[in-house]
Each structure stands twice: as structure tokens, then as C-alpha cells.
Design brief:
- The complex is a heterodimer of chains A (114) and B (111).
- Chain A has 114 residues and is an all-beta fold.
- Helices cover 0% and strands 49% of the residues of chain A.
- In chain A, a hairpin with a 6-residue loop joins β4 and β5.
- The N and C termini of chain A lie far apart (37 Å).
- Chain B has 111 residues and is an all-beta fold.
- Chain B is built from no helices and 11 strands.
- In chain B, β6 and β7 form a beta hairpin.
- Chain B is globular and about 45 Å long.
- The N and C termini of chain B lie far apart (37 Å).
- In chain B, 37% of the residues are buried.
- Classes of the chains: A mainly beta (114), B mainly beta (111).
- At the A-B interface, β4, β5, β9 and β10 of A face β4, β5 and β10 of B.
Amino acid sequence: EPEVTQTPSHQVTQMGQEVILRCVPISNHLYFYWYRQILGQKVEFLVSFYNNEISEKSEIFDDQFSVERPDGSNFTLKIRSTKLEDSAMYFCASRMIDNNQPQHFGDGTRLSIL
Amino acid sequence: RKEVEQDPGPFNVPEGATVAFNCTYSNSASQSFFWYRQDCRKEPKLLMSVYSSGNEDGRFTAQLNRASQYISLLIRDSKLSDSATYLCVVNKRGSQGNLIFGKGTKLSVKP
């Protein structure tokens, strides 16, 4: 069964540094998403991406964050000038074009900011 | 009011028990409904979509009541492997499908 893959599985970074989290969505999916989950809290939507542009973003997704689809397969989340409170699990998800179709999640990147 | 609210849990049940989870959502514009399960420190995995007429998948039955903005999940004949956190998830009409998650209800099935 096709799956969403994410790298790295764990990223440890000093506060103030930039990180790039990578995702390869399922190949025939057209909508891509990033979510985050702070330890012990619920999963929160960050951003959705369709047709090579951001289609929706949450208030969490401020100027510190950016997304990109640099080629036909990768989908990246960049966090500039990381803060301690950026420590969380970051999940990438994708789905087919039908809005009622479920999203399939990658196994996440654990980001630890020191 | 929280967008998606779930039973606080945890639910501790013996193998073979039947257990029910409830969920309410605040936005009447919600369009699609799902139950995901999440194992400790893992990604959410789709358990089932929830349809207006109710639907069943093996030991799992989901119900939706749009008038009451209420979703339920019933698990029959619980297995040890059912131990996980169950996430009630909705998306909004008019959004790009971004999902709104409940905080989840933890289930622990004991031998």
C-alpha cells in the first residue's frame, strides 16, 4: 500500500537555527498538509498546499514557517529561527482531490529544539 | 466551546468488552467525519470514515447525528491490539480539507 514518507525521523537543533522537514506524499495525491502535535496535546493543522501554492494556513503558520514543493515528489516545511516551543511532532499528510477523502499521514518527524 | 470534544478517558476494559466513544463538534458546517487511531508517539492512522447513515467495519461501528452534532464509535469484542488513543476528526465545508482533531480518548484493553 502506498504511504507518505517523512525524513528525518528525529531532528535535534539549537534554538535560532533553521530546519527543513521533508515529506514525500503519495504519488497520485494532489493536496498536501502539515500538522504538528506538541507532546500531550492534540494534533493541530498548520498549512494546506494545492496546485503549487498555499491554499489555507492556520494562525500558527506565521512568517517563521514556509512550505515548498521543489520537485515533483518532495514537499518541505521550513522553520526559520527555531524557538523552544517549536519542539513537537510534525506530520505530513496527503489526500486525493475529493474533499471527503481521508488524509493519509506520514510517520512524523520529532523536532527537538535545545 | 472546543471545536471537537471527546470523552476524557482513559477507558480501561477487559478483553472481549464492548466500548463506546462519543464526540461532539461545534461547527455545523462540518462536512466530513473520521475516526483515527494513534498509538503512543506515532502518526494518526485512519480507522474509518463516518457516514450519515452509519457504517460498520468488522468490530467497529460509527454513527453520525448531524442534528445533535454528535459522532460515536463502538468497538465490540475488544482486543489487546485495540489499545490506543482514538481521535475524532472533522473537516469544515469550504475549507481545503484541513482536519480538526479532538484531543483523543485513550483506550487500554487488559487481558
